[in-house]
Structure formats: C-alpha cells, structure tokens
Amino acid sequence: MSASPADFFRGGLPPPRASLLPDSVFFARTVAVAPGTPRAEVAGLVGLALEGQSPFPLAQMYHGFYWPDGADRALAFAAYRRRFTADQLEEWDGADHVLPAFAAILGIEAAPATTAILTSAAGLTCVRWDKGPVPASVAYRPLPPEATDADRAAARADLIRSAGEAARVLDLPSPPTVMAGGSDGDLVAESGGLRSFIPAAAAASLDVRDKGDLAAIARDHGRGILLWRAAIGAAAACAACALIQLGLLGAGLWQKARIAKVAAQKSTVAHIMEEQELAGRIDELSTKRLLPLEMISAASPEVAVPKNPPAIQFIHASASTLDTIEITAQTSNAGEIPGYKTALERSPGIDRVEIQDQRARDNVVTFKLIVTFKPGALTPAAT
After folding, report:
1. pLDDT tens digit sequence for 21-68
2. What DSSP state is assigned to residue 218?
3. In b/e form, how buried is each residue of 95-120, taking b as 16+ CB within 10 angstroms?
4. Are residues 135 and 106 in contact, defined by beta-carbon separation less than 8 angstroms?
5. Cα–Cα–Cα angle for 147, 148, 150, nearest 5°?
6. Which residues pair with 324 in a beta bridge?
7. Rounded to two decimals, what is the model's pTM?
8. Residue 302 CA to its chain's centroid (Å)
C-alpha cells in the first residue's frame, strides 16, 4: 500500500540513502592535525599519510576521513579499489553517503577510554576512544560462518584487550541504520540504541567515492537544491497571488454590500439632515436676532468710504442668515463699484463681499451686493 501525502508530512523527510561498506576491506590510521588547520588542508594531510602507509598510490584507493572541526587528529581510512566489484559500484549510484559501516557510528557521544564493538555477520569491529571525539584506533576481526557464540566472545575479548584499557564497553549487536537527519547533508545513524550524529561537513569527508565524482555530485546536488527552492518560491508566489486575488474579491463584495447599504440609507440620512438643518434654523431664529438694519448701516457707502462716498443707492435688502445680507443697489457711475467693494472688504467686521448680476440700462448700473460679516462682528443698535 502506497503512502499518502498526509503520511509524508506526518513522517517528515525520508532518511538519506547510504551504502555501508564492509569494514573488512578498510584499514584505518590516525593523522595529527595542527590547531587552526582548515578542512581543505586536512584532506591533503590525509592523502599524504595514506600514500605513505599504503603500498598503493592514492588514485588506486577509495578513501575518506573523520575530522570534527577543531580536533587535534583525524581518522583516515582507505581500501584498494579492486576489492569492490562492478555490481557493488553500481549500488553507489544515487547514494547520499558511501562509507564503511564503522564510520557511521563515529558520531556517538563516547567518553574517554570507551570501546565500541560493532557486530556484523562476517566479523567484529572494535572502535576505541582514548580522548576527544576522534577514535584512537579501529580494528577488525573476521569470523568464519560456522563460528559459535563462544568463538565470538573470545574474539570480542581479544579485540578489547588488544585495543587497550577500556573503562566502558559498548556492544552494538547490529549494523548501523541511517536515519533522517536534522538538515541537508547531516548523517544520523542508530545502532544498539545509541545515536550517532555527524554534521554535514564531517559527513561529506567520510564518503570514499572518487573525489572528482563527488565534486560533480555536489554540483548536481546544489543545482537541484536551487531548482527545488525556485520551484517552492514560485509555488509560494502563486499561492500569495491567489490569496491576494481572493482578498480583492472579498473586498469587492464587501464594498458592493457597503455601497448598497449606503444607497439604501441615503434617503433616511437626507431626511435627517433636512430636519437637523430646519431645527438649527428654528433655534437660530428663536434664540438670536437678525440685524438687517445694522448690516445695511455697516455696508452703506457713507460708512465704507466716509471721506468721499460713492453715489451708490440701495434699492432693496434681505437678510437670510445672521451674518449675510443681500442688497440690490444702483449707480450711475459703474467705475465706483470696484473701489466700493475693496473698501467694504477692508472693513474689520466684514468677512467676504461679492458683486453679482451687474446690469446697465439707460446709464444706470444695477447690481446685487452680498456682504458676509464675521460672526459676532455686529451688535444690536441701542434702542
């Protein structure tokens, strides 16, 4: 039965594909590393050490090393390339990690003087830590298929004795199992209830494949990650656009409902405004007095231009509000109207002056004068 998408999200990412090689074909050596040495130089030191301790040139070996950042030594391991068949090499295609089985447990939290015995069908592997995170030695003891439990116990005891004093012995009865890691490139393995965690940089150095092939795989992997992230980004952008479109659609529906509600209430609001205006007008007329005579007096030519008043006569006047009066006036000299308007605008109690509907007939110019006074500028005349 195939897994559903829900199972995928519940279970998280699948574990990386790892090819664990038999320990029997590898030999391991420690290489001293000076403080502050970068990882690229550590790889060179490991290559020189392996060439000096092996009868084969480095190009004829599959090799790797374990070096956590800052450690004072690295554990190098190598195997002759011809020890692997073509079928075994085909199994490496597409693998995320290719390394000896013992290398998968190098990331366990091992106290000083700790020895781990890794059991496989073909033999026993002994990994011993004396100090620090890098083991001091790795040894392998083959066992015949017909070996009894007593034979295995004797081989185990001999390995522990040969490795040196051990304050703690960890028995790992089954080969390591690679598990899903915390991030891309990390190597997480489990054996006998113990968890081994190796960060991505150190895990990459464990891989024994040809280094040129590994560089090409790393480039392809990086390109695949970029394409995957671009696809995820595009999908996220499409999702964001869809959400924005839905938001705009919802906002449009809300706006239509709001406009419809406003239109339905428009007549009610207009009626309320008319009633409020009428009430204000009634209140104004009932509590305040119109001052038409005072307005006419303040706007008269004699008051506006006392020294040389223009020959302008008021014919009719009406005060519709407290502060505004409309006056129909006439004059035989149209040139006096602008000066008269300017004089009114300069009066301290007048806010605005308008001249409208100016007409001339039989040498007489008739016009409408609208004068707006500042609030409170006029006071009732004394009785």
Report:
1. 999 999 999 999 999 999 989 999 999 999 888 888 889 999 999 999
2. H
3. bbbbbbbbbbbbbbebeebbbbbbbb
4. yes
5. 120
6. 372
7. 0.56
8. 78
DSSP lists the bridge partners of residue 126 as 117, 139
At residue 201's C-alpha, the angle toward residues 195 and 205, to 5°, is 90
Instruction: Give the phi and the psi of residue 358 in degrees, each rounded to 5.
Output: -85, 125
Identify residue 38 by its one-letter amino acid code.
P
* Rounded distance between C-alpha atoms, residue 80 and residue 22, angstroms: 13
Q: What are phi and psi of 295, to 5 degrees?
A: -65, -45
Count of beta carbons in the 10 Å neighbourhood of residue 245: 10
| Regions in the chain scoring below 70 on pLDDT | 1-14, 181-182, 218, 220-225, 228, 281, 283-289, 381-383
Fill in the DSSP letter of residue 153.
Answer: H
Are 116 and 104 in contact, with CB atoms under 8 Å apart?
no
Name the token pair of 177: 């199992």
The count of other CB atoms within 10 Å of the CB of residue 125 is: 26
Q: How far is CA 229 from CA 222, 223, 232, 235, in A?
A: 11, 10, 5, 10
Q: What is each CA distance from 210 to 26, 52, 58, 217, 267, in whole angstroms? A: 15, 19, 10, 11, 86
CA-CA distance, 46 to 68, in Å (whole number)? 14
Contact 205, 64 (CB under 8 A): yes
Determine the pLDDT at residue 54.
Answer: 82
Sign of the torsion formed by the C-alpha atoms of 43, 49, 50 and 56: positive
pLDDT at 354: 94
